[in-house]
Amino acid sequence: SQKIEQNSEALNIQEGKTATLTCNYTNYSPAYLQWYRQDPGRGPVFLLLIRENEKEKRKERLKVTFDTTLKQSLFHITASQPADSATYLCALADSNYQLIWGAGTKLIIKP
Amino acid sequence: NAGVTQTPKFRVLKTGQSMTLLCAQDMNHEYMYWYRQDPGMGLRLIHYSVGEGTTAKGEVPDGYNVSRLKKQNFLLGLESAAPSQTSVYFCASSYPDTLHVAKNIQYFGAGTRLSVL
């Protein structure tokens, strides 16, 4: 079965630095990958989608890369701010177009 | 525009009790989903619906039932609650892009925190 792994340990980053989160997957070749943000007590909110034939996608201070050879996606936040502190989830579509979710990585941006 | 609304926000049940969680969306989305989220685990799909009057099982359907009588509403029922169903439940909806069916961006409610004692 498909498996998605995100770093379960919280990532502590100094304000202004670039935060990089990792999403690794096995046993599947997804057509696309999504990243969501989840704040405490709230539902996930969609951020970015990247297709298998795209190497990189950007949105303001966010950048996502997708390496289908390594079976890995990297999520970058440049010039990080305390307001970026949240849990970030990655998700892949399975063969039935249902999303398979990683457990998320908690990001803490320190002032 | 409210998006996806879940009720109730919190609930405590005793083992064996039943309850229904309500999800309503005002975005005219065809697809709706129920997930549960447990610590250290990704969202797990319980049931989903691809349109009014249709439902299908997800990854963890046992102990739950659903109904989609109206396009905008998706109900999740627990017939006889068990402590293992203590979790945070999220409803989501999406409007599949017919040109790129795999796109499936989902919009979530704020969740229902359920404790079963």
Helices and strands in order:
The complex is a heterodimer of chains A (111) and B (117).
Chain A: E1 3-6, E2 11-14, E3 19-26, E4 32-38, E5 45-51, E6 56-59, E7 62-67, E8 72-77, E9 86-93, E10 99-101, E11 105-110
Parallel strand pairs in A: 2-11
Antiparallel strand pairs in A: 1-3, 3-8, 4-5, 4-9, 6-7, 7-8, 9-10, 9-11
Chain B: E1 4-7, E2 10-13, E3 19-25, E4 31-37, E5 44-51, E6 54-57, E7 64-67, E8 73-78, E9 87-94, E10 107-108, E11 112-116
Parallel strand pairs in B: 2-11
Antiparallel strand pairs in B: 1-3, 3-8, 4-5, 4-9, 5-6, 7-8, 9-10, 9-11
> In percent, how helical is the residue content of chain B?
under 10%
Q: What percentage of amino acids of chain A are in beta strands?
A: over 45%
Work out the oligomeric state of the chains in this entry: heterodimer
Which runs of chain A of at least 5 residues are low in confidence (pLDDT < 50)?
Answer: none
Question: What would you call the shape of chain A?
Answer: globular
Largest sheet of chain B: 7 strands, mixed
Please tally the helical runs of chain B, counting DSSP H or I stretches of 4 or more residues: 0
What does this structure look like?
The complex is a heterodimer of chains A (111) and B (117). Chain A is mostly beta strands and 111 residues long. Chain A contains no helices and eleven strands. In chain A, the strands form two sheets. In chain A, strands 2, 4, 5, 9, 10 and 11 form a six-stranded mixed β-sheet that branches. In chain A, strands 1-3-8-7-6 form a five-stranded antiparallel β-sheet, with no helix packed on it. The termini of chain A are far apart. The mean pLDDT of chain A is 92. With 117 residues, chain B is an all-beta fold. Chain B is 0% helix and 50% strand. Chain B has no helices and eleven strands. In chain B, the strands form two sheets. In chain B, strands 2, 4, 5, 6, 9, 10 and 11 form a seven-stranded mixed β-sheet that branches. In chain B, strands 1-3-8-7 form a four-stranded antiparallel β-sheet, with no helix packed on it. Chain A binds chain B through residues 4, 8, 31-32, 34, 41-46, 49, 89, 91, 93, 97-104, and chain B through 4, 35, 40-45, 48, 58, 90, 92, 96, 101-111.
